[in-house]
Write a sequence for this structure.
């Protein structure tokens, strides 16, 4: 009986049973928390301290996302050819130092709007490498039968960060100021470095006959030949560009609802709780024959919830819609990323995931468009228009792409 109980616990932990993955997850959780805190603090710094307009939030998004998109395409090639662990050391070190610099500028009263944008752009450059590196590194630590568990745990890591980090960031802003919040964020990247030191994994560098452009083209050709991977990447791009403008505009919604920095942190945290619950639920449906329908309906219900949130004037209703939307989006995200990870070969993983992880950079870029619309009209219309566009795109795929609506995770081949 005891061994049966122990084996059930072990099965539920999945990839977390692997010591190397567990250490990677803990270090990544710390750095993800750092990212979440810095995003919140930079936005609050611009709106509350430096007197920036909604359009400046859009500029912040563009400053981060445009360098990230450019570098992520090439970063995937580097991830396939060089030592991933070494590159992650370099990136984590820079991120920590950039946050310490922001803390010093704020503490000395020398911070300007252009400082925030410049440092965000540099963070975007290094972040463009970080995405494909993470996505191609963790599969090396696990077996294929742990893939969905690892993807779900990686998603849960981001969601836990969204629960805890904004609440912590809001509290630190109130109690220690914006400079203190940037210092707290830098600690997350320092912890990532310390955990990476403990992970030993054999990674072969492939620098011989290295033709950068040819390797890059090979990655695009690979995706183009695999229609399911291609369509899922396009869908995910649309989801993050149109569906997550809300994140960049959240300070405006918080002020509209009469909230301070603590209230803003609560709103982000509710989204994290919902997404975390979604990662638990999605593992229960991975063998479903209707995984394609679940994937697509997750995107549609996410879009609907954004519209309702946009025009809610009651804090509690707003928090409810902030819960519903991310829950359904998580059903989409975890299943889609698992399908891609299982279908891509190890030799191409860095390049494919480099192109895939551009999707996260589209969040602040979409935020720039949202900031422009919010400047002309208001943030409610910005989020609503984008949510309707996303819903229509998903409906078209549901109706006209049977290979996506009928897709199954179990179709993946070893």
């Amino acid at each position: 009986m005891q061994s049966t109980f122990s084996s059930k616990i072990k099965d539920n932990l999945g990839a977390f049973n692997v010591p190397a993955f567990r250490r990677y997850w803990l270090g990544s959780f710390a750095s993800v928390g750092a990212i979440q805190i810095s995003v919140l603090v930079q936005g609050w710094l611009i709106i509350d301290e430096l007197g920036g307009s909604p359009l400046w939030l859009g500029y912040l998004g563009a400053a981060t996302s445009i360098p990230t998109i450019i570098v992520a395409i090439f970063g995937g090639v580097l991830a396939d050819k060089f030592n991933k662990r070494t590159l992650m050391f370099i990136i984590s070190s820079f991120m920590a130092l950039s946050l310490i610099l922001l803390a010093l500028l704020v503490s000395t009263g020398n911070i300007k709007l252009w400082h925030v944008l410049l440092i965000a752009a540099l963070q975007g450059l290094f972040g463009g490498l970080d995405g494909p590196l993470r996505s191609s590194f963790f599969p090396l630590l696990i077996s294929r039968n742990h893939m969905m568990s690892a993807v779900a745990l990686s998603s849960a890591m981001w969601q836990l960060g969204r629960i805890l980090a904004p609440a912590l960031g809001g509290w630190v802003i109130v109690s220690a100021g914006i400079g203190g919040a940037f210092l707290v964020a830098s600690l997350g990247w320092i912890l990532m470095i310390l955990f990476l030191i403990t992970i030993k994994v054999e990674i072969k560098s492939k620098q011989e006959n290295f033709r950068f452009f040819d390797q890059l083209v090979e990655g695009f050709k690979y995706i183009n030949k695999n229609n399911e991977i291609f369509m899922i990447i396009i869908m995910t791009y649309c989801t993050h560009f149109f569906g997550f403008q809300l994140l960049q505009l959240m300070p405006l919604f918080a002020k509209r609802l009469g909230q301070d920095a603590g209230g803003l942190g609560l709103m982000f945290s509710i989204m994290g709780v919902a997404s975390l619950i979604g990662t638990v639920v999605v593992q229960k449906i991975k063998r479903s024959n209707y995984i394609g329908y679940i994937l697509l309906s997750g995107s549609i219900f996410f879009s609907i919830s954004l519209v309702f949130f946009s025009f809610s004037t009651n804090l509690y209703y707003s928090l409810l819609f902030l819960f519903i939307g991310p829950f359904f989006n998580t059903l989409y995200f975890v299943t889609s990323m698992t399908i891609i990870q299982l279908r891509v070969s190890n030799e191409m993983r860095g390049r494919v995931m480099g192109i895939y992880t551009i999707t996260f950079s589209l969040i602040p870029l979409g935020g720039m468009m949202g900031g422009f619309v919010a400047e002309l009209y208001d943030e409610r219309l910005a989020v609503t228009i984008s949510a309707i566009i996303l819903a229509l795109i998903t409906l078209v795929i549901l109706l006209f792409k049977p290979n996506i609506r009928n897709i199954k995770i179990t179709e993946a081949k070893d």
